[in-house]
């Protein structure tokens, strides 16, 4: 009975810390929102409490074994949040947040309240301010696929190659096919958004390009 109060306090702190992160995720309209993060944090905290208390009554028991299994279990939960949409992968940040919230719950469960609180604040800072840095980086290295149908002769193909070569973009992958009297080419490129728009304009101005999908 004497241990019930501090254990309950740990669960309450885990609830609050999970709720703080979950609220930010909810306001950002993410898949793992308020309740999900609360339950992950409280559940991880509870497992850690049980691991600690069970190990205390068993000589030579490893207090970290159950915590290690929490990490594995959360990995499966996070994997469910990761989705592939065409050429883009989404949900990685949500999965990482789930992983961090679980770690915060473990920290609180083992009685490390301060480090759990610090981790919560750092997580909020990353979620609140780093998306702007992400947007700036994405502006400089956007990736798109150019699908082009052009005339079936080398002059037109060389012009298209030149457009990509002189532009400030990097061609990561290229595919070329001949079909129905035309060249079908795909150019998977990375580079600044404005420079890619410049490539689109030049391709549309080319007399050899019949169709362009970007």
Keywords:
214 residues, alpha+beta, Alpha-Beta Plaits, 2 domains, two-stranded antiparallel ribbon, 7 helices, 6 strands
Give the topology.
Elements: H1 4-27, H2 34-56, H3 65-79, E1 83-85, E2 88-90, H4 92-109, H5 113-140, E3 142-151, H6 154-166, E4 170-179, E5 182-191, H7 193-205, E6 209-213
Helix pairs in contact: 1-2, 1-4, 1-5, 2-3, 2-4, 3-4, 4-5
Structural commentary:
The chain has 214 residues and is α+β, with helices and mostly antiparallel strands. It folds into two domains: 4-138, no CATH class; 141-213, ACT domain (Alpha-Beta Plaits), CATH 3.30.70.260. 63% of the residues lie in helices and 19% in strands. The protein contains seven helices and six strands. It has helices at residues 4-27, 34-56, 65-79, 92-109, 113-140, 154-166, 193-205, and strands at residues 83-85, 88-90, 142-151, 170-179, 182-191, 209-213. Strands 4-5-3-6 form a four-stranded antiparallel sheet. A two-stranded antiparallel ribbon has the order 1-2. The radius of gyration is 26 Å and the shape is elongated. The N and C termini lie far apart (66 Å).
């Amino acid at each position: 009975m004497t241990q019930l109060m501090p254990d309950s306090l740990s669960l309450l702190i885990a609830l609050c810390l999970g709720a703080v992160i979950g609220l930010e995720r909810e306001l950002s309209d993410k898949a793992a929102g308020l309740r999900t993060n609360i339950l992950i944090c409280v559940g991880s905290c509870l497992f850690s409490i049980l691991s600690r208390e069970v190990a205390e009554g068993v000589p030579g028991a490893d207090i970290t074994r159950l915590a290690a299994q929490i990490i594995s279990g959360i990995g499966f939960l996070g994997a469910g949040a990761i989705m592939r949409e065409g050429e883009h992968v989404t949900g990685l940040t949500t999965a990482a947040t789930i992983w961090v919230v679980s770690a915060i719950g473990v920290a609180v469960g083992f009685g490390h309240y301060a480090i759990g609180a610090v981790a919560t604040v750092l997580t909020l800072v990353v979620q609140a301010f780093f998306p702007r840095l992400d947007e700036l980086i994405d502006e400089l290295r956007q990736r798109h696929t150019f699908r082009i149908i052009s005339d079936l002769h080398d002059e037109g193909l060389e012009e298209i190659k030149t457009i990509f070569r002189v532009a400030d973009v990097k061609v990561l992958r290229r595919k070329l096919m001949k079909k129905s009297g035309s060249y079908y080419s795909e150019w998977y490129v990375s580079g600044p958004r404005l420079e890619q728009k410049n490539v689109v304009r030049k391709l549309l101005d080319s007399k050899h390009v019949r169709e362009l999908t970007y």
